[in-house]
Amino acid sequence: MMAQIWAWVIAKTRDEEGQALVEYGLILALIAIIAIVALSFLGGSVNNTLNTVANKVGGA
Q1: How far apart are CA 26 and CA 36, in angstroms?
Q2: What is the dihedral of CA 36, 41, 47, 49, to 10 degrees?
Q3: pTM
Q4: Positive or negative torsion for Cα 13, 27, 32, 54
Q5: Is the backbone of residue 27 left (phi > 0), alpha (psi -120 to 50) or beta?
Q6: Where are the alpha helices (DSSP H) in 1-60?
Q7: Which tens digit of pLDDT belongs to each residue from 39-57?
Q8: What is the Cα–Cα distance from 37 to 22, expressed in whole angstroms?
Q9: Comparing C-alpha atoms, which of 23, 20, 2 is closest to residue 12?
Q10: What is the mean pLDDT of the chain?
Q11: CA torsion angle for 16, 22, 27, 28 (degrees, to 10)?
Q12: Distances from the Cα of 44 to the Cαs of 21, 25, 34, 47, in angstroms?
């Protein structure tokens, strides 16, 4: 009886670890999508700002 309970606990732990790994993967994918979307919207203005700063520093 104890061996069956122990086997059940081990099986459940392995299942939950796999589930957690999938959840972390989904969170990572969501963060990557948000970063790509943010860069696509803000990329032009960031580029312009960096060019303005570079021109002012280079001209000094």
Answers
A1: 15
A2: -130
A3: 0.51
A4: negative
A5: alpha
A6: 2-59
A7: 899 888 888 998 999 999 8
A8: 23
A9: 20
A10: 82
A11: 130
A12: 35, 29, 17, 5
Provide the b/e sequence for 13-23 (b: ≥16 CB within 10 Å): eeeeeeeeeee
Select from 21, 48, 46 the least CA-distant residue to 35.
Answer: 46
Residue 46 CA to its chain's centroid (Å): 22
End-to-end CA distance of the chain: give it in Å, rounded.
81
- What is the Cα–Cα distance from 56 to 49, expressed in whole angstroms? 11
**What amino acid is encoded at 42 in this protein?**
L
